[in-house]
Amino acid sequence: MIVLMPEQIDNPSTFDVAIIGAGPAGAAAAIHAARAGYETLLVDGARFPRDKTCGDGLTPRAMHQLEKLDLDVNPKYRSLGLKLHGFGGSVTAPWPQTYPVQTGTALPRLHFDNLVVDAARQAGATLWTGTPATAPELSGNRIVSFRVGEAEVRARWIIVADGVRSTFSKQLGRTWQKDEVYGIAARSYATSPHAGEPWLHSHVELQDEKGTVQPGYGWIFPLGEELGQVNIGLGALSTARRPAKINTKKLLEHYAEQQRPEWKLGPIEHVASALLPMGGAVTNVAGANWMLIGDAAACVNPLNGEGIDYGLETAALAVELLGPKDFTLAWPDILRAHYGQAFLLARTAARLLTYPQFLPVAGPLALRGPVGRILMPAAARLMGNLVTEEDRDLIARAWRMAGGTVGRLRSHSPLWSTD
Ligand SMILES: Cc1cc2nc3c(=O)[nH]c(=O)nc-3n(C[C@H](O)[C@H](O)[C@H](O)COP(=O)(O)OP(=O)(O)OC[C@H]3O[C@@H](n4cnc5c(N)ncnc54)[C@H](O)[C@@H]3O)c2cc1C
């Protein structure tokens, strides 16, 4: 890693593109920008390798983007799809053939993010780590400069990929709309002799110690025989009005206890939790010469909390947009064109899960009865972020049957809008 001392940095330092945040979104943007021939700076406040609270799962959608970046991740382990369990039933959903790559994988973010950052450096991006970007200086809604420690940075374009906490983008006016569905989630690692199991597993009937069904789902994502571990975690959906009243870490202990006999799990380690803005529920995501990508733009699937693929995709889209155009309206338009409908549908379905009464009634129907046989494979694909046009239509119809209309919701839902 390159860590420059203040005296080694030109003041001001000038670049074509400056990218703030070197998670998967920022590092992928740096690869695309450097490959396109732009003088590129990639800045992260942390030093790599660094951990990031995550389920570490990569679906074929993410693999497709990684292939474009020439990254082969955890080559000895491949997943085939998702198994969904609960309420006395189980559904197996192999990854559909939507993408040329039809397998997924998983790798702890400690290693995965380091791999992508390293590829950015090799592609020719200048990398500064260990000091955060601060103090954006604005002229209208154009960023003129910002600081990294003592250094003043100037760039024609700035791509902000500073993640869920998004301290830099808050200063640019980015606002998280917590009335919309957001996630709370916790993950941990445990050893298992079944770490080579080729299916991701998700449990939608999550019970606490008293046997009460909690509004969330658990996951076990194997990491391959070589690592000999699984990522085990759980997530729940919330809104400001109906916050999920669960203690994620305590519930995770209990979930691991329940799964231990089948998976022969060792003790759970490195337990960490985080909040997740989802489904584009943020406003002010672009200015004249800057754009937010990845988690900073809430590009996370509301039904499964998956965001690495969107981070990688928005990185590619942002670099394609670089040019003389003003990004203020162009960038949210691009996000809406690519993800608007899918995110609104998923948010709508996810909202149902924030009603404590919903799962205990709908769960058995969905996982056992004839309705389940039709709906659940589609729902499993939704959770795996691999929705086909037919699935989209099926979920849309199911939602309309449930008495609402997505259209009504769509009219006032914040979706990367500008204040
Ligand atoms: C419990 C949990 C489980 C999840 N499971 C999955 C999963 O299985 N699969 C999946 O695809 N997604 C999953 N996600 C979502 C996924 O983790 C995120 O969508 C993904 O990390 C987004 O990448 P990013 O690059 O936008 O942000 P991040 O990975 O958060 O990276 C942001 C970077 O910006 C840096 N930064 C922040 N502020 C500054 C600053 N001012 N200056 C410089 N650097 C800064 C940070 O240090 C960090 O390195 C999960 C999330 C959670 C919380």
From TrEMBL:
SUPFAM superfamilies: FAD/NAD(P)-binding domain (SSF51905). It holds the Pfam family FAD_binding_3. One of its GO terms (molecular function) is oxidoreductase activity, acting on the CH-CH group of donors, NAD or NADP as acceptor. Residues 15-316 form the FAD-binding domain. InterPro entries: FAD-bd, FAD/NAD-bd_sf, Geranylgeranyl_Rdtase_fam, Geranylgeranyl_reductase. This is FAD-linked oxidoreductase. It comes from Corynebacterium flavescens.
